[in-house]
From TrEMBL:
This is TetR family transcriptional regulator. The lineage of its organism: Bacteria, Pseudomonadati, Pseudomonadota, Gammaproteobacteria, Pseudomonadales. The keyword GTP-binding does not apply. Residues 26-86 form the HTH tetR-type domain. Residues 49-68 bind DNA. Keywords: DNA-binding. GO terms for molecular function: DNA-binding transcription factor activity; transcription cis-regulatory region binding.
Length: 220
């Protein structure tokens, strides 16, 4: 059994063997996806098996494996749908930041990250932890090949927008800590204290951490 914390199982999500092209094959894949979602909603990840998916969807096990190499590949398709949807929402979140004070903007950004992480985590906790590095909303379908490219294209320009409100002498480091360091914090919260995901205390603490990166205290 894979340990969700095992780094050897992380990375890119599993994908379909082939994408459905004809209407019949698309209907088959959709039926499998919907059955997977229903099982997760009604019985949880422990009840999710290919045999149960086949039973509920009416698709033969052999036909399922023609498109999906594993159970995880079926779950990955659910995550693809959610991330595509949330990518559209992310654009609207970014538009709302224009003209906001720094602290309010950070609250909006971090509250949205918490909401998305919670949604993904509830879908399938084990899968989410196993493939967390691939479930990066900011980089999803984006033109970035590395985390560094993502940070330079998103977090660093954000800091430049608020250059009058920040005091750090190391904006590149601050951008990295916001873009990657906070993501590592989210991963730890998911593993160690998921009950805190929707607490106001978590959001307030993350905002304070972010402000600390941008307005570091100077020692006498």
């Amino acid at each position: 059994m894979n340990n969700p914390a095992d780094t050897s199982t992380r990375g890119q999500m599993p994908s379909l063997r082939k994408r459905p092209v004809q209407s019949g094959s698309r209907a088959l894949v959709d039926a499998v996806e919907q059955a997977c979602l229903q099982i997760l909603d009604e019985a949880g990840e422990a009840a999710l098996t290919v045999a149960r998916i086949a039973e509920l969807s009416g698709v033969a096990v052999g036909s399922i494996y023609q498109y999906f190499p594993s159970k995880d590949a079926i779950v990955a398709l659910l995550y693809e749908r959610v991330l595509d949807e949330e990518s559209e929402q992310l654009l609207r979140v970014r538009e709302r930041l224009v003209g906001m004070p720094l602290k309010a903007a950070l609250e909006q950004i971090l509250a949205n990250i918490i909401r998305v992480e919670t949604r993904l985590f509830r879908l399938n906790k084990v899968f989410h932890l196993r493939y967390h590095s691939a479930l990066h909303l900011g980089m999803w379908r984006g033109p970035y090949t590395t985390t560094g490219e993502f940070i330079e294209a998103t977090w660093l320009p954000l800091l430049q927008m608020y250059e009058q409100e920040i005091t750090t002498q190391h904006p590149a480091l601050a951008a990295y800590l916001l873009g990657q360091g906070l993501r590592s914090v989210f991963r730890s919260v998911l593993e160690d204290m998921p009950e805190q995901l929707e607490s106001r205390a978590l959001l307030d603490s993350l905002v304070a951490m972010a402000i600390g990166c941008l307005r570091p205290c100077t020692q006498a």
